[in-house]
Amino acid sequence: MTKRVTVLMGGASAEREVSLRSGAAAAGALEQAGFAVTILDVGRDPADIAARVVASKPDVVFNALHGRWGEDGCVQGILDLLEIPYTHSGLLASAAAMDKSFARHLFAQADLPVAQGMVAVKNKFTGEPIPRPYVVKPLNEGSSVGVYIVRPGDNTPSPLETWPFDSDTVLVERFVPGREITVAVMGDRALGALEITSERGFYDYEAKYAPGGSKHIFPAPLPASDYREACRLGLEAHRILGCRGVSRTDLRYDDTQPGKAPSFVVLEVNTQPGMTSTSLVPEIAAHQGISFPELVRWMVENAKCGL
User: Fold this and answer.
1) How many independent structural domains does the chain possess?
2) Confidence class of residue 91 from pLDDT cuts 50, 70 and 90?
3) Which of its termini does the chain have fewer beta carbons within 10 Å around, N or C?
4) Which of 270, 279, 283, 297 does the annotation list as catalytic?
5) Cβ-contact 212, 174 below 8 angstroms
6) pLDDT digits (tens, 9 = 90+) for 94-136
7) 250 has catalytic annotation
């Protein structure tokens, strides 16, 4: 009997458009892999989500939602109550990864390197929260939404004074110079590390999704020992948060200090990374001989419910 897969996509977060792309691409690949696919563009109403999922009669839900409500444990909780297996991480790992401050705490407790930082409250500072340069980011957004770099000599107001999001609490971290490295994890293994470069100077939302906004180099051109360390950090971050299925860990690699050995910091784990055929995780998987249909098939076959 053909397995039925319901793809959740869209949603109401700031990453809605990205999710629609992920969902459409994943649905196409799932059909190529031989599944019967239903697509649902869902919002924030839990009763509506539950009713529509149940009506679609899935064997498995492929969760292609990004950002709040879809990636932070909310939808995972609904699917747990319905006892329907779903792709990616469970409720607990999803919530932990989405809360950047909490995830940082877990990484630090496990001796993974993180940037110096603090949680700050908007309009509660008369000066700088930490010395420049530093990065200000929301505690619970993805795709670099709302991320600002405050550099020495900037004449623009601090983001702490002009914060546009609905939460007054933000994460402030020391800006780490160097290179952007990302590691794809599939189950219990790191698939590899990729370097991302952008002429914009910062891998922001536009660099991630605009045509030609970034360049991907695989494998990341690092010394062999540092490449292994990047993969180790990606896998350890995945394990520490209790992730399952596919995830992506973003790192900074600082090789800018003369006479000082390069070093990594762990930025965050994406429990629901982009899932188009040209997104980072599918791209890394393809370099390892895993096609996009094969990747989504593996995700469906390893789907679970529960924490």
Assistant:
1) 3
2) very high
3) N
4) 270
5) no
6) 999 999 999 999 999 999 999 999 888 876 666 778 888 999 8
7) yes
